[in-house]
Design goal:
The protein is of the alpha/beta class. The chain is built from 11 helices and 14 strands. The strands form 3 sheets. A 6-stranded mixed sheet has the order 6-7-8-3-9-10, sandwiched between helices. A 4-stranded antiparallel sheet has the order 2-1-4-5, covered by helices on one side.
C-alpha cells in the first residue's frame, strides 16, 4: 500500500549526536490509595532514529509511562528527558518536537475529520497555507481524503485510529509516541498504520510504541523493553532477546486444556529438559529438539486433547515475554 503523501523528514538542525530520544532515570509513580507503585524506579534509554517498543501485561504501567512522557501526569520521583530536555521544566520546547497518540482516540465526534485536524493544528500554533497543507498531507497519509468531510461519529474504529494517529503528526514532530495504536481495529487499518509508521521512521522520526501484540512488536520494533509490576524486566534489540531463548524450540497449543500430568509426562522423555504448561499451551525445552519431536507427539496423542498447532524453530517474542511475566495478562 503506497501513500500519496510522503511524510516530511524531521528537522535535523538541533539533533545532538549521542543524545537519546527519550531518557528515564529512577522514574516512579504512585497513586493515592494504590497498593504498589504504578512505576517503580524505571531506568530506560530510547535511542534516536528507531522504532522502540514497550511491552507489558495489563496493569504493568505502560499507559502510566506514556502519560508521563506526554506531560499528562507528573511523576512521583525520577527524571524524564526528551531530546535532552526535561519534561517538567522545558515542556514548552518539548511540545514542538513531540507527537502524542493516546490509547483512547482524542477526537471530537461531532466534527468532521478535516475539522478535527484543523482544530488540533491550530492548538499547535499552525495557521494559514501551512495549516491547510498539513491537513491535506495528513488526510492523504491516513487514506481518508474521501472521508475528510464526514463527521467522526460515523467512522469505524479503524478510521478513528487512523485519524487519531495523524492528529499527532500535524506539527511534524521529531519524536512520536503511540499508546497501543492498533487495539481492536480491522486488519486493513492495522496494516496501514504499520506501513505509515515504517515510512515515518524512514523519514527520520523516532518512534516509541506500546503494544499488547507480540507479532506487532516483532515486526515493527528494532528494540524493546518489557515492564511488569511497574519495573523494567529487560531491554534490548529484538534479535538479541530472541537469541536468549534458543533452547525453547517446541511449543504445543491445544483446542482444550490438557490434563495436569502432560507436562510431567513429557519431562520423562530422554532429551527433554523441562516442560511448562499454561492453559492450553505447553512449552517444551530441549537442546536437541529434532530428536524429541516424535516421542513428544506419541505421548500427546495418548494423553492430551486435540493438538491445535506445533511451533518448531527459533523462539518468538511471545515466548520471551511469557518467560519474564508468566501468563498474567498474556498477550493477544
Amino acid at each position: 500500500m503506497t501513500s500519496t503523501a510522503s511524510p516530511s523528514p524531521a528537522p535535523q538542525a538541533d539533533v545532538r549526536v549521542g543524545t537519546p530520544a527519550i531518557e528515564l532515570k529512577g522514574l516512579s509513580k504512585s497513586f493515592p490509595g494504590g497498593r504498589a507503585p504504578a512505576l517503580d524506579g524505571v531506568d530506560l534509554s530510547v535511542p534516536r532514529g528507531g522504532i522502540f517498543g514497550i511491552l507489558g501485561p495489563n496493569g504493568a504501567g505502560k499507559t502510566t509511562l506514556m502519560s508521563i512522557l506526554g506531560g499528562l501526569i507528573l511523576p512521583s520521583s525520577g527524571s524524564v528527558r526528551i531530546d535532552g530536555h526535561d519534561v517538567l521544566t522545558e515542556a514548552r520546547h518539548i511540545r514542538h518536537i513531540l507527537g502524542l497518540v493516546p490509547q483512547e482516540p482524542a477526537i471530537y465526534p461531532t466534527l468532521t475529520a478535516r475539522e478535527n485536524l484543523d482544530f488540533f493544528g491550530r492548538m499547535q500554533g499552525l495557521s494559514g497555507a501551512y495549516l491547510e497543507s498539513r491537513i491535506q498531507a495528513c488526510l492523504e497519509l491516513a487514506e481518508m481524503t474521501g472521508e475528510a468531510d464526514q463527521r467522526v461519529e460515523q467512522f469505524s474504529g479503524g478510521y478513528k485510529r487512523r485519524l487519531n494517529m495523524v492528529i499527532g503528526l500535524m506539527h511534524e514532530p521529531e519524536i512520536l509516541i503511540l499508546d497501543e495504536p492498533t487495539v481492536a481495529i480491522d486488519p486493513h487499518s492495522r496494516a496501514l498504520i504499520h506501513d505509515r509508521l515504517r515510512e515515518l521512521n524512514a523519514a527520520g522520526i523516532s518512534i516509541l510504541i506500546s503494544t499488547h501484540y507480540m507479532e506487532e512488536a516483532e515486526l515493527l520494533c528494532d528494540e524493546i523493553a518489557i515492564i511488569d509490576h511497574g519495573r523494567l524486566m529487560v531491554q534490548g534489540l529484538v534479535p538479541d532477546l530472541l537469541a536468549q531463548r534458543r533452547d525453547e524450540a517446541i511449543e504445543l497449543q491445544f483446542f482444550g486444556e490438557p490434563g495436569a500430568g502432560l507436562a510431567r509426562a513429557l519431562e520423562t522423555i530422554p532429551g527433554v529438559q523441562r516442560a511448562e504448561q499454561a492453559g492450553c499451551r505447553v512449552r517444551v525445552f530441549s537442546d536437541r529438539p529434532e530428536q524429541v519431536i516424535a516421542p513428544i507427539m506419541q505421548r500427546v496423542q495418548a494423553e492430551a486433547p486435540t493438538l491445535r498447532s506445533l511451533v518448531f524453530g527459533r523462539a518468538s517474542l511471545e515466548q520471551v515475554f511469557l518467560s519474564l511475566t508468566g501468563d498474567r495478562g498474556a498477550p493477544r
